[in-house]
Amino acid sequence: MVFTAGQIAGILEGEVEGNPEIAVHKLAKIEEGEKGSLTFLANPKYTSFIYTTKASITIVNKDFTPEQNVETTLIKVEDAYESFSKLLEYYNQVKSNKTGIEDPVYQSDTATYGANFYLGAFSYLGNNVKIGNNVKIYPNVYIGDNVTIADNVIIFAGAKIYSESRIGNNCVVHSGVIIGADGFGFTPDKNGEFKKVPQTGNVILEDNVDVGAGTTIDRATLGSTILRRGVKLDNQIQIAHNVEIGEHTVIAAQTGIAGSAKIGKRCMIGGQVGIVGHITIGDNVKIQAQSGIGRNVKDNEVLQGSPALNYGDYNKSYVHFKNLPRIVNRIDQLEKRD
């Protein structure tokens, strides 16, 4: 796809300084820019590259004033980083604007879908599936019975959406995601053998949820496993049955959340965090990577360690931990004196 500086400025509501007819067809880092590419300058550390870049167009902040001659055409905007992100989103929308149904696929006679629908080859739509407008389902996707998918949803290749799941508007489900598999529910009988507890609930993704590749979200035993509006999940995360995650919480890769844990709004959870079941984590909580959470957490706490401590207490304790060999050596020397 080819865009001119004038077209890009129109999309971003920016101003062109240079040739409005110059065209680009690819993106590049500013230090690696070449003819026909588009780049941006947002971090002052990279300012020197704007005088050497070969990129045809560079997006900059409105307050940027070159101190020497630049060859690249400038597009001036309020926030260069935000505008570049907006442009990437626009580019992805144009690139992925597929429509139609490829062959072969399986569609139940009772499945319905809205306008501008795309269904990739070897996909499966079960009974009573309801799909909204502008939904893109890539090849090899399984959609089970009674699943509801709202508008402007993208489901990438190889995802599996089990029966009864509900996906809201503007969600993105990446490759390899499994939504609605059985929760890990077993109970021992009198002989000590573990018997499966039927998992009869579902999974609900509210609007604007992103689910990273390889992540699994289990259906509830009863009721629903719920990801509230604006939740963002990284790759390879495990969300167990009956978990509820509050609005605009973000979780990094390889985190595991056990059953019936409740996580509040606007939390930030680092990678490889483990959270036990049946606890409540408040709003605006920050949990550092590789922490283990085994208790209820109040609003606004910042935690680190396993088991996790208050972030400040953890850092103080870690200083003492690092000094343990010297402390032990001093104690040994004192004992020898005695």
Automatic annotation (TrEMBL):
CDD domains: LbH_LpxD. Pathway: Bacterial outer membrane biogenesis; LPS lipid A biosynthesis. One of its GO terms (cellular component) is membrane. The keyword Thylakoid does not apply. Residues 22-89 form the UDP-3-O-[3-hydroxymyristoyl] glucosamine N-acyltransferase non-repeat region domain. GO terms for biological process: lipid A biosynthetic process. It catalyses: a UDP-3-O-[(3R)-3-hydroxyacyl]-alpha-D-glucosamine + a (3R)-hydroxyacyl-[ACP] = a UDP-2-N,3-O-bis[(3R)-3-hydroxyacyl]-alpha-D-glucosamine + holo-[ACP] + H(+). Keywords: Acyltransferase, Lipid A biosynthesis, Lipid biosynthesis, Lipid metabolism, Repeat, Transferase. GO terms for molecular function: N-acyltransferase activity; UDP-3-O-[(3R)-3-hydroxyacyl]-glucosamine N-acyltransferase activity. The active site is at residue 241. SUPFAM superfamilies: Trimeric LpxA-like enzymes. It is an enzyme of class 2 (transferase). It holds the Pfam family Hexapep. Its EC number is 2.3.1.191. Transmembrane segments: none annotated. The keyword Transmembrane does not apply. Catalyzes the N-acylation of UDP-3-O-acylglucosamine using 3-hydroxyacyl-ACP as the acyl donor. Is involved in the biosynthesis of lipid A, a phosphorylated glycolipid that anchors the lipopolysaccharide to the outer membrane of the cell. Homotrimer. Belongs to the transferase hexapeptide repeat family. LpxD subfamily. This is UDP-3-O-acylglucosamine N-acyltransferase. The gene is lpxD.
